[in-house]
UniProtKB/TrEMBL annotation:
A biological-process GO annotation: phosphatidylinositol phosphate biosynthetic process
UniProt keyword Nucleotide-binding, yes or no: yes
Protein known as: Kinase
Keyword ATP-binding in record: yes
EC number from the UniProt entry: 2.7.-.-
InterPro entries hit by this protein: IPK, IPK_sf
Gene Ontology CC terms, in alphabetical order: cytoplasm; nucleus
GO terms for MF: ATP binding; inositol hexakisphosphate kinase activity
Family designation: Belongs to the inositol phosphokinase (IPK) family.
The encoding gene: Ip6k3
The organism's place on the tree of life at top rank: Eukaryota
Length: 413
């Protein structure tokens, strides 16, 4: 049931079958789609404490906190696992879907939703992944692989056609979210019975306004372990930082998806790729994040830099905060304004990340958001082990280097 919150995400009186969030590019915990504008994730008390006492100046740089919802695991007669959120006590049966599941597929999730008009019949959507697709998905998710969405076709086969008899458009998605989702379901299934209620945080879906969300997930700071980390975990995280750009730049890449206008698919990279990058490799990948398959999106550089500078100003003023293991998302829409398009001059774009420059006058909409605060600590936070003085200098170091690199790209260096 939804807890007290500034704004309720939905007035729905029915159970919500949670879907994997298809635009999750990093992290290890599964993000779930609650509705078009809301995602949810397992509740961690330290993260809840952060959102409940969020400084006003930081709110424009974090997802809006929307409350808490109870979630339980459900297994159908075929052994398929789903997560169901309970915003109220009333639920709807989705039994009809079970009969539509073929032996040649594995149902990762399915969804029931009531048609918008009151009294209308229910609309059901079934999403299936074939055994070969699943095998390829997780084979391609191995460390260091570059993931192209061209290989992974997401099938959304509606059981009911629309009013014109059309089937929904087939799309392809970043495999990382599905990877996290499967692991999460398996963990929950092995540890808990179906009746156990789990608390999930409801948060703003910060990419819902974008047609083709290009997302860069950056792990910020020179330290990644929380104060509560065991000695073993602490040593592991210190080693990761020392062997990656976290130590040298205060920032490393944890995931990325970039819409490629020339192919109509997303170029995807995971956290294992990001860990292996040198400082120069980080700069090349940051440039690649701004390449759309035809040219470098120079129109994005100034608004991204301005927003990062605004965040830097806010972080410098936050005394006692330490954002250990948190991430920073840089987001923009892969769908350009027409005046910013330009021809492709280099067909070896993916390998060389050497995009030609397109000079546009229109500044595209961009966003910068901080996420993942399970290990964030500040004076007065719940479970606080240590109180720190002054701002988070490791985070500031990462932001300053990020801004410098983007400025160099802007100046053609």
């Amino acid at each position: 049931m939804v807890g007290q919150s500034p704004r309720e995400p939905s007035e729905s009186r029915t159970a919500v079958l949670l879907e994997p969030f298809v635009h999750q590019v990093g992290g290890h915990m599964s993000m779930m789609k609650y509705d078009e504008h809301t995602v949810c994730k397992p509740l961690v008390s330290q993260e809840l404490s952060f959102y409940e006492s969020l400084p006003l100046a930081m709110r424009q740089f974090t997802p809006q906190y929307k409350g808490i919802v109870s979630v339980h695991l459900k297994k159908d007669s075929f052994g398929n696992l789903t997560l169901i959120a309970s915003p109220s006590l009333q639920t709807e049966s989705c039994g009809r879907l079970e009969n539509a599941i073929g032996d040649a597929s594995v149902t990762m999730w399915h969804k029931c939703k009531r048609a918008a008009n009151t009294g209308a019949s229910s609309e059901h959507t079934l999403v299936k992944w074939s055994h070969t697709q699943l095998t390829k998905t997780f084979k391609d998710s191995c460390p260091g692989k570059m993931l192209l969405r061209t290989d992974l076709q997401y099938r959304a086969d509606s059981l009911l056609e629309d009013a014109k008899g059309n089937q929904p458009e087939k799309n392809s998605y970043n495999p990382w979210g599905l990877h996290c989702h499967r692991q999460h379901l398996n963990r929950m299934s092995s540890k808990h019975n179906e009746n156990k209620l789990h608390q999930f945080l409801l948060l703003e879906n910060v990419v819902s306004k974008y047609s083709y969300p290009c997302i860069l997930d950056l792990k910020m700071g020179t330290r990644q372990h929380g104060d509560d980390a065991s000695e073993e975990k602490k040593a592991r995280h210190i080693k990761k930082c020392e062997q990656s750009t976290s130590a040298s730049l205060g920032v490393r890449i944890c995931g990325m998806q970039v819409y490629q206008a020339d192919t109509g698919h997303f170029l995807c990279k995971d956290k294992y790729y990001g860990r292996k990058l040198s400082p120069e490799g980080f700069r090349q990948t940051l440039r690649q994040f701004l390449c759309n398959g035809n040219h470098l999106r120079t129109d994005l550089l100034e608004p991204i830099i301005l927003r990062l500078k605004a965040l830097l100003s806010v972080i410098r003023k936050q005394s006692s905060y330490r954002f250990y293991s948190s991430s920073l998302l840089i987001i923009y829409d892969g769908q350009e304004q027409k005046e910013n398009t330009a021809p492709l001059d280099n067909h070896l774009l993916f390998q060389k990340t050497n995009c030609t420059t397109a000079h546009g006058t229109h500044h595209s909409r961009v966003d910068v958001r901080m996420i993942d605060f399970a290990h964030t600590t500040f004076k007065g936070s719940k479970g606080n082990h240590t109180t720190y003085d002054g701002p988070d200098h490791g985070y500031i170091f990462g932001l300053e280097n990020l801004i410098k690199i983007l400025q160099n790209i802007s100046e053609g260096k």
